[in-house]
Write a structure and sequence with these properties.
This protein is of the alpha+beta class. It has two domains: 1-30; 33-136, Dna Ligase, domain 1, CATH 3.30.1490. Helix content is 34%, strand content 30%. It contains three helices and eight strands, in the order H-E-E-E-H-E-E-E-E-E-H. Strand 2 (42-47) and strand 3 (56-59) form a beta hairpin.
């Protein structure tokens, strides 16, 4: 009889663990979006006017497109970071599909992406390389602050 009670207890504990795992999985997926740029074959950089720069728009060359696609990948979370993300945006596109990213204008590696009208944030994979590439096209830090 004691063995039967132990088995019921383990089944109950296993059930609770499964329910908790499903809840955690659901919370993660409700509060995150995937940033997958593999589809893109073009990137357009748009810089808004700020104190010492005029606004401009330029297309990124193909080698830099491939590097930026690697730098900007992962999962983005609903969050409210202190890093300013505005003033510069990168639109990755191919055909009719596009995703626009807004890198932070200070030293943060934070990047904002908007999905379904909501802001999501993630850390780029190589902030120094991203800055090096964008500086080639005329982006000057800090911006959007």
């Amino acid at each position: 009889m004691a063995g039967g009670m132990g088995m019921k207890r383990w089944k109950w504990i296993a059930g609770i663990i499964i329910v908790l795992a499903v809840l955690v999985f659901a919370l993660i997926n409700l509060n995150t979006v995937s940033v997958n740029l593999r589809f893109a074959d073009k990137v357009v950089l748009e810089v808004e006017p700020y104190t010492y720069r005029n606004a401009f728009v330029t297309e990124i060359n193909q080698d830099d497109v491939e590097t930026l696609k690697k730098i900007f990948s992962g999962r983005a979370w609903k969050d409210m970071p202190a890093c300013p993300t505005g003033g510069v945006n990168l639109t990755f596109s191919s055909g009719g599909k596009s995703i626009t990213l807004y890198p932070a204008g200070d030293d943060c590696a934070t990047v904002r992406v908007v999905r379904n009208g909501q802001n999501y944030y993630f850390q780029n994979n190589d902030n120094d390389k991203m800055r090096e590439i964008l500086e080639k096209y005329g982006v000057v830090w800090p911006f959007g602050i």
